[in-house]
């Protein structure tokens, strides 16, 4: 098993998934501390980015396939130091990090697309039940329904009189999370199916729970991501992350007759040979063994 230690987490790769264990000390990022650990299957990884910067520091980021990132589904535009799928480190571990990135990238490229995106979304999301206390009250999600309870010191009079409200998951179209800006509250907002559009005063918005500070924002993001990952999402309803537009959709292919595989195209051949050349480079640089190279080469050629 390959292991990579970074500035705020340790990543381990067993050939099938990346297991991430976050630092949880008092100086750790609130979201990382709340998560503790997470697992990213290779079939969920759309791209692996490895970059170096000044003084040979490095950054390794996993880009999940469209529609699978539970934090992006909740609308979270996360800062780099909060991104759960980004690891940074110093010059001393740069070669190890680059090798690690190559191993994960190769596995992701050779892994077919997931047959069940819903299963993957749930696997990547925070576990349920989840229950958090923030400035305005409590948010709880058990996998079937979301309960908002306004019993906090920041709750308005109208919300305190309402006390609580339950929203079945099947009745929600989406969930929105947003951090506080310029000293304002952050919030979690539920959007029921068929709800009218238009602004609503926060003091009387019974679909919203307000939070204050980074720790509470991280807590509400966990709830939002857990909800978003389990919604019955249609592809057209998936929100794209602000910093990375979704790739253009490919035209639908005509199904082949039963038992007949699609023939490889010239583009498929070129991609395969490019992958073999890349593996050869890794072998020549001593990053993989001759046995590993021959095994991967045979696997790729057998697909032609």
Automatic annotation (TrEMBL):
Lineage: superkingdom: Bacteria
> Could you say which residues form the signal peptide?
none
Instruction: Extract the ranges annotated as region (Disordered).
Output: 240-271
Compositional bias of type Low complexity: which residue ranges?
240-264
UniProt cross-references to InterPro entries, sorted A to Z: DUF4429, SHOCT
Which parts of the sequence belong to the DUF4429 domain? 11-105, 140-227
Q: Which residue range or ranges hold the SHOCT domain?
A: 275-301
Q: What is this protein called?
A: Uncharacterized protein DUF4429
């Amino acid at each position: 098993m390959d292991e990579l230690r970074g500035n705020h987490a340790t990543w381990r790769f067993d050939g099938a998934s990346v297991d991430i264990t976050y630092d949880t000390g008092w100086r750790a990022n609130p979201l990382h501390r709340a998560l503790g650990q997470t697992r990213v299957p290779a079939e969920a990884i759309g791209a692996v980015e490895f970059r170096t910067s000044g003084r040979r520091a490095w950054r390794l980021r996993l880009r999940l396939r469209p529609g699978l990132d539970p934090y992006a589904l909740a609308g979270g535009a996360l800062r780099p130091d909060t991104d759960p799928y980004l690891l940074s480190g110093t010059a001393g571990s740069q070669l190890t990090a680059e090798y690690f990135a190559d191993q994960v990238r190769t596995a992701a490229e050779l892994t077919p697309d997931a047959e069940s995106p819903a299963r993957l979304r749930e696997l990547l999301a925070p576990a349920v039940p989840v229950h958090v206390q923030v400035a305005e009250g409590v948010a709880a999600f058990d996998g079937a329904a979301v309960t908002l309870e306004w019993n906090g010191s920041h709750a308005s009079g109208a919300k305190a009189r309402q006390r609580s409200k339950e929203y079945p998951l099947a009745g929600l179209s989406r969930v929105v999370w947003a951090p506080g800006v310029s000293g304002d509250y952050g919030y979690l907002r539920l959007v029921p199916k068929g709800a009218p559009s238009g602004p609503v005063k926060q003091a009387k918005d019974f679909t919203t729970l307000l939070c204050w500070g980074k720790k509470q924002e991280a807590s509400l993001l966990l709830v939002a991501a857990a909800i978003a990952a389990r919604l019955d999402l249609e592809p057209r309803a998936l929100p794209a992350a602000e910093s990375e537009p979704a790739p253009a959709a490919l035209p639908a292919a005509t199904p082949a007759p039963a038992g007949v595989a699609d023939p490889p195209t010239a583009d498929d051949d070129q991609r395969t040979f490019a992958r073999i050349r890349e593996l050869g480079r890794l072998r020549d640089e001593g990053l993989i063994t001759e046995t590993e190279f021959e095994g991967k080469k045979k696997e790729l050629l057998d697909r032609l």
